[in-house]
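Work through this:
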Amino acid sequence: MTPWLVAAIGLVPALGAAVIMCARGNAAARLAAVQLAGSIAVLLLVVLTFALDQPSSIDLALTLALLTLPATLLYALFLERWL
């Protein structure tokens, strides 16, 4: 087991906690949890790229990093408009 794989396994509980927080709490806490989950998912994808030795899959992590902010802004717009 490589250190990269251990790091990836260590990030899974943090991602799980952020996802659970997305479902609970008030609107501001959910919005922060969505942003946190996106950041942790990017880190997890980068670590898995090194753990599995697949350099081409770093593109997925970079794409998620670019789309996390607009997705969070759309989520905030949804919360403001319909909830």
Observations:
- The longest helix spans residues 27-51.
- The mean pLDDT is 92.
